[in-house]
Amino acid sequence: MIPEALTFDDVLLVPQRSSVVSRKDVETRTQLSRNITLNIPLVSANMDTVTESAMAIIMAREGGIGIIHRFLSIKDQVREVQLVKRADNIVIDTPFTIGPYMSLADAKEAMHQHNVSGLLVLDDEGALVGIITRRDIVFEEDNNKLIRDIMTPKERLVTAGRDISPEEARKILAKHRIEKLPLVYENKLCGLITAQDIVKRLEHPKASRDKRGRLLVGAAVGVKEDFIERAEMLVKAGCDVLVVDIAHGHSDLAINTVRELKKKFSIDIIAGNVATAEGTSDLIEAGADAVKVGVGGGSICITRIVTGSGVPQLQAILDCAPVAKRAGIPLIADGGIRNSGDMTKAIAAGASTVMLGNVLAGTDESPGITIIRNGIKQKVCRGMASFGAHLGRKEREGQKDDNPNDYVAEGVEAMVPYRGKVSEVIQQLVGGLWSGMSYCGARTVLEIQQNARFTKMTQSGLRESHPHDVNVVK
Ligand code: XMP
Question: Which of 8, 47, 274 to probe ligand 1 with, by most ligand atoms within 8 A of CB?
Answer without folding.
Answer: 47
